[in-house]
Design goal:
Elements: H1 2-29, H2 48-79, H3 96-125, E1 132-139, E2 142-147, E3 152-154, E4 157-160, E5 164-171, E6 176-180, E7 185-189, E8 195-200, E9 205-211, E10 223-229, H4 233-245, E11 247-248, H5 251-258, E12 282-287, E13 290-295, H6 298-306, E14 311-313, H7 328-331, H8 334-346
Parallel strand pairs: 1-5, 4-10
Antiparallel strand pairs: 1-2, 2-3, 3-11, 5-8, 6-7, 6-9, 9-10, 12-13, 12-14
The protein binds dinuclear copper ion (CUA).
Dinuclear copper ion binds at residues 138, 141, 176, 211, 213-215, 219, 222.
């Protein structure tokens, strides 16, 4: 009995030492840093420091308990190991103060974690009413940003320092996830519904957007750049210049995005027939196995976009159907098809 008590006393004297070491480690390692830490990238939004605070609180709490529990366990294992000639100690069966001590503090800590976590979650869900809205479209494999202020869109996200920004996001095809590590924001982008997130960028610079949900073989390439313009005269001018440079959707921009690779405007054949002089002309086409001549009217152009295999051009060459695989009937909105038809009509009758 006497030896056990000496052991207990020695252990009790060492516990504060262990606790002190862990506390020193905690202080030395810090709890988040605007320039980034070993575990976290730099903090470029106003939300980032709160997220990091909760993260490091939970991390260090875990580290503290891990070190102490493992330390005490190893110490006991060694101290009370089986030795020849020493009878095993009887184990205590019930100890109320001890049981309260290991039940109550963890409950309090879990409630604190939940409180800070939930508070942060609600804050990240609730964009301020003066937030600038940007529409985000995720598709395999790029992000597209539309700025309602001008109606223009771009593959780059530009924001002002200190200005809350709310992103309203949707997917054109499969599940994606919009992730800006330096802003500590991430949200799934789900086909068939809108999701949103917001942030206030507080550090001028260029940052990355990633897709954080596997969405096909180019998933890792689904990235975009974010530019945060400084809140200065010059920064505001740069931001306005960017907005002015965004592409407002038009028949021409749709042509460049969707058709240009295969259809020229110069009369030359690239992959498919040229659009030059197409509208209103007489065209030889293969329809249901027979070559006929038709007038390239609006209905023909529309059908050729939505159902490319229906009439295959026999103008100058035997074109086969390489276009159905592009699935424009699914990819283009009805208004976009209208714009394209108008654009091709506007290329003039010849
Ligand atoms: Cu989009 Cu992964």
């Amino acid at each position: 009995m006497t030896t056990t008590r000496t052991h207990d006393l020695r252990l009790r004297r060492r516990l504060p030492l262990l606790g002190g070491l862990a506390a020193a480690g905690l202080l030395l390692a810090g709890c988040g840093n605007p320039d980034g830490t070993l575990q976290m990238p730099l903090q470029a939004s106003e939300q980032a420091k709160d997220v990091d605070w909760v993260y490091y609180f939970i991390f260090w709490l875990n580290a503290f308990y891990f070190i102490h529990i493992m330390g005490v366990m190893a110490w006991f294992g060694w101290r009370y190991r089986r030795r020849p000639g020493v009878a095993p100690e009887p184990s205590p069966h019930h100890n109320l103060p001890l049981e309260i001590a290991w039940s109550l503090p963890p409950i309090v800590l879990v409630v604190v974690m939940f409180y800070w976590g939930f508070k942060g979650y609600v804050h990240l869900q609730t964009a301020p009413s003066d937030a600038v809205k940007v529409e985000v479209l995720g598709k395999k494999w790029a992000w597209n940003f539309t700025y309602p202020a001008t109606g223009g869109s771009s593959e780059q996200l530009h924001v002002m320092q200190g200005q809350p920004v709310k992103l309203i996001m949707e997917s054109e095809d499969v599940l994606h996830s919009f992730y800006i590590p330096t802003f500590r924001v991430k949200k799934d982008v789900v086909p068939g519904r809108f999701s949103s997130l917001w942030f206030t960028a507080n550090r001028p610079g260029e940052y990355h957007v990633y897709c954080a949900e596997y969405c096909g073989d180019q998933h890792s390439m689904m990235r975009a750049e974010i530019t945060v313009h400084p809140d200065t005269e010059e920064g505001r001018a740069e931001y306005q210049a960017f907005l002015a440079s965004t592409t407002v959707m038009s028949g021409e921009s749709l042509y460049r995005q969707n058709c240009q690779a295969c259809h020229s405007l110069e009369g030359t054949i690239v992959v498919g027939p040229s659009f030059r002089g197409l509208f209103g002309s007489q065209r030889k086409v293969l329809e249901a196995g027979a070559v006929t001549t038709i007038t390239a009217d609006e209905a023909y152009i529309r059908e050729s976009i939505l159902d490319p295999g229906a009439k295959l051009s026999r103008e100058g060459r035997e074109f086969d159907d390489q276009m159905s695989a592009q699935n424009f009937a699914q990819r283009l909105e009805p208004e976009e098809v209208d714009m394209l038809v108008e654009f091709i009509k506007g290329l003039g009758e010849k």
